Amino acid sequence: xxxxxxxxxxxxxxxxxxxxxxxxxxxxxxxxxxxxxxxxxxxxxxxxxxxxxxxxxxxxxxxxxxxxxxxxxxxxxxxxxxxxxxxxxxxxxxxxxxxxxxxxxxxxxxxxxxxxxxxxxxxxxxxxxxxxxxxxxxxxxxxxxxxxxxxxxxxxxxxxxxxxxxxxxxxxxxxxxxxxxxxxxxxxxxxxxxxxxxxxxxxxxxxxxxxxxxxxxxxxxxxxxxxxxxxxxxxxxxxxxxxxxxxxxxxxxxxxxxxxxxxxxxxxxxxxxxxxxxxxxxxxxxxxxxxxxxxxxxxxxxxxxxxxxxxxxxxxxxxxxxxxxxxxxxxxxxxxxxxxxxxxxxxxxxxxxxxxxxxxxxxxxxxxxxxxxxxxxxxxxxxxxxxxxxxxxxxxxxxxxxxxxxxxxxxxxxxxxxxxxxxxxxxxxxxxxxxxxxxxxxxxxxxxxxxxxxxxxxxxxxxxxxxxxxxxxxxxxxxxxxxxxxxxxxxxxxxxxxxxxxxxxx
Length: 506
Ligand code: ZN
What we know:
By secondary structure, the chain is an all-alpha fold. The protein has a domain of 147 residues. Helix content is 63%, strand content 3%. A 3-stranded mixed β-sheet has the order 1-3-2, with helices on both faces. Helix 6 runs antiparallel to helix 7, helix 9 packs antiparallel against helix 16 and helix 16 crosses helix 19. The longest helix has 29 residues. The mean pLDDT is 96. The site of zinc ion has 4 residues, from helix 11 and helix 12.
């Protein structure tokens, strides 16, 4: 029995705290670069970030850290699995083991190549010509396979990259899950089209003053419960959320004059990420537990507020009068019902980011399958554009008009790596649906509360059952604890079917 904390644990906590400080400092630099930094600051900022990055890597892979973690095995075993002590050691060991498996020399080579490939992608996109980026992407594929080789126990070359952000998830499991998901979604899309009914969203495409849009978004987030004493909302071209500590969580939003839905749903999405970070148990601070547990779980929090809630009738029964008050000229004559239909139009398109709830996951599963085929050596980079277009024709019934709107639309493969880039989005939608279904079983009054502007019923439930745990439990553990089941497709498929049968009067 341990009556007081062993000195190795105290020393571990100190090291982890320093790692976190460096990490948060890098986050702040990133936020600044994407928001207010003058262009002239780019070169110096790049050098500063590289220095911090190097210090962080040295500290995170120091042999002494490994020794300390080894020395703490008995102490870890003596503590309950869900205690902060055992969880901190478990997650710190997991992070350490992953980091030391990859040589620093490789990390440097990959980072240098990522810059080259990103620049080639930007040029290729500009010219809408995949051939420009093809040689660089071929090298990315080689490097992605080299990365996988550092984890020889992996069953599939994509598994190490997936495990890095969605711990425990594997290609085998995801293939099964996404395979089950594809058919009912294709069917639902077909049924919507066969109905011959169309829904109109021209209401959203009028000139909307950008300052009023951002002001509405900010007030809505505040009403829902986003804590602006511990957060911000700024504008950017490519929206993201960063945490500079649990008391400083910064959201960004994209506001464009001719499309109201962009700022409204983007801010709700980023708020979901931010609420998760703000909702962490304060006792986890300074430990590696103080963050969202996986890419899928984080995305689930974002998509739950953006779609499950943000595109629900109940939400707009409450919020539409506020929005109408802000845009009398544009929306003064519209009804809640018209607005609700407008934000739920289902449309076959070649674009992932603006896709509706029904087609979105098809965009994701197409990318997931293509990256697996590339890593398995079944798809050559030269054949990627054709394979992309064929998959779009098969699943979505559209052919992208050119490379820019096809294979070049997402930065992921070109700026990062091949493998592990897309599964989090579809996992997020599945997890969000399963969590919401459980929340409704406990609190059937949630929709009525939403209509009345009482967001706390759902927010508190998420805080108690998801947010506060941080990385203490994996997404799989958390889902089983909270919903009593492993991840299933039914909550999402049933929820979407019910909703769109009603929206389209099927
Ligand atoms: Zn997101």
